[in-house]
Amino acid sequence: MHNLNPSYPQARRATLIGGVINLLLSIIKMVIGIIGNSQALVADGVHSLSDLISDVMVLYATKHGGKDADDNHPYGHGRIETIITVAVGILLIAVAIGISADAIDRLFHPEQLSSPGIIVLFAALVSILAKEGLYHYTLRVATQIRSNLLRANAWHHRSDALSSIVVLVGVMGTMSGLEYLDAIAAIGVSLMVAKAGVELSRESIEELIDTGLKQEEIDTIKQTIQGVEGVRAMHRLRTRKMGANAIIDVHILVDPKLSVSEGHHIADRVESKLYEQIEDISDVTIHIDPENDEEVTPCRALSMRSELMERMEGCWKDVPESRLIKDVTLHYLNGELELEVWIPLGTIESMARAQQLSETLNNCIVDDPEVKQVRAVYF
């Protein structure tokens, strides 16, 4: 397992700073919203509280989701983050529905509309500046430690700054005599909260059902694999997310006559290139194919070596040179077997005898439905 999890201490520090700021802002905005008669600021305070929940999620997921794989979790613990994200997303949607329902009720009952005071403007301005600063700080740390989770949390901070701007505009309009603007602004903020909840839930649910990576990421993966020397083609590429990381399974086609070790070396090179080119990848499984097993006749029903050699040796027993055979290489291709019989050249008295021996070996497979060819290799 190739571990790409961020440095926990740095992520923890950035998240704790964000959590403290979010807690203070949520309290300030909700208290001032109540005192200043601004439903929109109260809703914005709830949005800041949702960021606090997000911070707690990031802390927990970074600590526990970053644990190494074990016997019970062979792909790691990244789905801890995913499950928590779904829960938080659903919570945000529920909160947004409640805020919107209350704001709409106020619009239909003008006597319930609030008249925000000037203190609300200052609270909104403080929120905008604080959250924008927190966004830039968190994004910088996320870039340093290559953490997609922390980067997403940074954008969550910015969404709170944007919602505070909506509040600012709504309150200013209400103070100008348009009393209904504060309620409309509250609805606008609730829609932002709902949007965040829907996106968090949707992306996480897609991960839980093993939805593949985006097409542009898949294109990059294909280009990387096909750019490795020795890879003739590829198929059965499967991708999925595990927390912030990606997992890849792929079949690559190599020369069918390569040695096992060379095929393995090509697979190692493909794996290394994928890790170099795509930082999100945490695990790669590569299956080496001598041919495209989606297009050719499968070989799985053919005899194994022991059974095959028993048949061949029974046929070759009357050939004097058969005792000189040093090795037999089997090639399982397109539903048939090809044999390479390795014989020391110095043991063959003439080229004519070598040709005759090759013909004799092939005569043994005339009635064998599995073997296509026997080729004598003299070395």
Automatic annotation (TrEMBL):
Keyword Metal-binding: no
Keywords, in A-Z order: Ion transport, Iron, Iron transport, Membrane, Transmembrane, Transmembrane helix, Transport, Zinc, Zinc transport
Domain Cation efflux protein cytoplasmic: 213-291
Family that this chain belongs to: Belongs to the cation diffusion facilitator (CDF) transporter (TC 2.A.4) family. FieF subfamily.
Main location: membrane
Residue stretches spanning the membrane: 14-35, 82-101, 113-130
Protein name from the UniProt record: Cation transporter
Domain Cation efflux protein transmembrane, chain residue ranges per copy: 17-209
Gene Ontology terms describing biological process: iron ion transport; zinc ion transport
InterPro entries: Cation_efflux, Cation_efflux_CTD, Cation_efflux_CTD_sf, Cation_efflux_TM, Cation_efflux_TMD_sf, CDF_Transporter
Membrane topology per record: Multi-pass membrane protein
GO cellular component labels: membrane
